[in-house]
Amino acid sequence: MAKTILITGATSGFGEACARRFAAEGWQLILTGRRRDRLQALEQELGTAVSRTLVLDVRQRQAVQEALGDLPAVDVLLNNAGLALGLEPAWEVDLDDWETMVDTNVKGVMYCTRTVLPAMVARNGGHVINIGSTAGSWPYPGGNVYGSTKAFVEQFSRNLRADLLGSRVRVTYLAPGMAETEFSQVRFKGDDERAAGVYADTEPLRPEDIADIIWYVANVPAHVNINALEVMSVYQSWGHLAVHRQR
Questions:
Q1: Which CATH number fits domain 4-231: 3.20.20.70, 3.30.1360.20, 3.40.50.720, 1.10.150.170?
Q2: CB–CB of 65/115 below 8 Å?
Q3: Continuous segment of H or E residues that includes residue 51
Q4: Residues annotated catalytic, as ranges
Q5: Where are the domains of the chain?
Q6: Count helices and strands in the chain by DSSP H and E runs
Q7: Which alpha helices (DSSP H) does 144-189 contain, by range?
Q8: Whole-angstrom distance, CA of residue 49 vs CA of residue 174
Q9: Which parts of the chain have pLDDT scores under 70?
Q10: What is the pTM of this model?
Q11: 132-155, pLDDT tens digit by residue?
């Protein structure tokens, strides 16, 4: 019997790549996203691999509970929906941007997990895979609340593992570094030139790279739990400590 993966934020980037990767391996897909046209296009492309599409904003608690509360058995929940907005310093940022990041990256993960997890526990099987970011561990100017939300996702994942000890439900936290998706276009609110500059003259991760890793993580033997993975392009690493010098 085919396994089922529920992917939030399936209409672009990592989520879309994962939909294609898991469909190619014979899995059934439940796909959510805010853009109906993209969901429909993906469903048309992947055909019978898609068992259900749900137009869903993970920030809406009641909508999440209604949409995901009566699903058939889900083997993998991929909490992928997330975003960054702006790169301003903390004292200049738009508070609406901070709230949107918290509502999506923190509350959205909470709502989806809390809705799907009880059924996994009841049947003693399943896997929650949470997409974080290297920004959750390594700060950078302008990362303020975005990095903080991803730090939450990491700690939430670890605490889920603690709660689930003794069950066969697995939890994995995956922290990608720089990857070329719509991420920067969203962060810079449609400024394509500025977004392109993020990836200029280098080779970032691709969505397909992350999809391959998620496929591997989801298919290790049932007694194996990959707690956390951090992955960067070979062209990205950590910098030296910043020091301000007064002249």
A1: 3.40.50.720
A2: yes
A3: strand 50-55
A4: 146
A5: 4-231
A6: 9, 7
A7: 144-163, 183-187
A8: 25
A9: none
A10: 0.96
A11: 999 999 999 999 999 999 999 999
